[in-house]
């Protein structure tokens, strides 16, 4: 295993990981090329190479991928599902993802109205993952507080194109994965498939998933390439549900009784097809493409949800990097289209079976974003950066079940999101940056309030969430140490938050004024070296850590005053200490620490509990064909709360908590050729 630098300043890819048999793919950047691109952003960004997690963890959830990216809070709930928040995004989204836009090879995973799920993410399939925090995701057309995460698959021109891996471990976890690839003249192709199943730590949490991703590329010339993508998933997952704090801490394996009685599940089938074409002319590069997604969600919960999604769209982008009047100038401009429909039907849930039809609607969403960003280097190593994005979005619902009234309606949004910043390349390894940016998050069909004792607020009355974020930071990468430090503050108007509840469910509407501010710190360093082995390839003890400080609050709210926003810890630390021998052996402990409980309701009456988890891993990875690992998690078998849903007003009996898994051991091996 390579010594792990912080994800915001990853270890530089080497020939062992990035070499290619012949010319590289034009449509799929190497990790080194992608790192160079992402580091031209004057704000919080990260690139996580697959080598940072793939060969040394089960790599079963997005938490394994993003655990060492400061500013990211990713906690597993059950199966593949994870509570993901970046800089406090989507805190009120108790189900599905909100506030972060997910992409696969630059192609949207989220639905057209903004929802996202992690069941379509296969951490074994990617060569690297890019994280753009907040307004730094302008180039994707991202319009949310959390920004964007882009998962990038290999091409047939990467080294070690073929491989197979096997992972097994606690709670019945097992996964078999294989990939094959190659290049022949102008053609290349890559395909990966995995089958995974788990019994789950908690009752009623067993699940399985089968996933396939692939692409085929054709080079008309070294400067002209097109690539076709396929992604397909079949996921079947039981849901154990949230429980009371007492149950989570004293009977952590128990499922919520209603979830068992109704056999609650989240089952998803998806197929995604896409094309991306890249053409390069001297200093200018054009990228364009189109995509279509067919998704079927079969979701027995309090009702039996049967949703069919059809999303489609396209994108075009131009990057021009040249000298103008003796000064370097880099211009990026583009357009993104994401449209879709949801055939929405909800039935009575009778012990996990469909009952009578209770609601039906056809929901349509359209999103068109146009963006431009220019970086002008008025000094050889200092760039002034300015840009803007314009978003036109519509939401239209046609209610087809009028027995409970007509919920039809339509909304339209036209939003500008400007951005300005500075990027200072202090030396080839060290950057400083500052920026101010705006993000505009359009509400989805799920934002509304309706129920006994609360005001009825239709989705057409929900306003977009507008944030202005100020950010300053620095990052450095050198052979034996690396670090990143960022401070930010986001002043938010109309944040999408839970202000009302009925039957224990959160109703998301607009708050008045709130703010999110924090510090994101990542570091990696060889704190000891030349212990037993000296010379050009010594042994090392490598420290890697990611610390996040969160301060999220209401701002003189008439109901909640200056209370803390619920749903995220104020302090979150991940750290590991690894001994690394030059032959490829590594071993060492790690810790996950939440030293202070956080609130789960806006009234600040109920909290989680602080916790510290101890882990240990060992393995072999010298960058060659074979690697293997064994990892122990929560070795002290600590009972803890991994994540929580949030509500406006909680009591001691509020069922809001997701217990974390107990002591677990995983092992795996991988062979590549």
UniProtKB/TrEMBL annotation:
Tell me the ranges covered by the TonB-dependent receptor plug domain, including all copies. Answer: 39-148
Cross-referenced InterPro entries: Beta-barrel_TonB, Beta-barrel_TonB_sf, Plug_dom, Plug_dom_sf, TonB-dep_rcpt-like
Which processes are annotated in GO (biological process)? siderophore transmembrane transport
- Answer yes or no on keyword Hydrolase: no
Bias category Low complexity: which stretches?
1-16
Highest rank taxon of the organism = Bacteria
Q: Region Disordered: which residues?
A: 1-24
The UniProt entry lists membrane topology as: Multi-pass membrane protein
Its family remark reads: Belongs to the TonB-dependent receptor family.
This protein's name: Iron complex outermembrane recepter protein
Q: Which source organism?
A: Bradyrhizobium yuanmingense
The opening ranks of the lineage are: Bacteria, Pseudomonadati, Pseudomonadota, Alphaproteobacteria, Hyphomicrobiales
